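Appendix C: a fully annotated inverse folding record. The material below is reproduced so that readers can follow the format used throughout the book. The structure is listed first as tokens, followed by the designed sequence.
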């Protein structure tokens, strides 16, 4: 199944949480921090949103940091992804 975001929406896939702490301790599932870094999978076309022109500044393949509890979770071919507004993306990781 292919998902193509509309308007100013962006389809992202969250990066996996660290399995081992910096000190070398193996972390259990509940001890892992929810990651905020994600990979951009697909980007909507932008356009006029709420009366304002929106130009998309992210592209597929970018690594981004998102607001912690933003977006709508969807399952695509068994993988969990999130659809967020471009305004919910806080930064591009270079």
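Designed amino acids, in order:
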């Amino acid at each position: 199944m292919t998902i193509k975001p509309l308007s100013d929406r962006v389809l992202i896939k969250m990066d996996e949480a660290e399995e081992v702490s910096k000190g070398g301790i193996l972390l259990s599932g509940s001890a892992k921090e929810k990651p905020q870094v994600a990979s951009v999978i697909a980007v909507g076309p932008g356009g006029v949103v709420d009366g304002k022109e929106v130009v998309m500044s992210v592209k597929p393949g970018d690594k981004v940091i998102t607001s912690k509890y933003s977006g709508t979770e969807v399952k695509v071919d068994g993988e969990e992804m999130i659809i967020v507004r471009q305004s919910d993306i806080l930064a591009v990781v270079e």
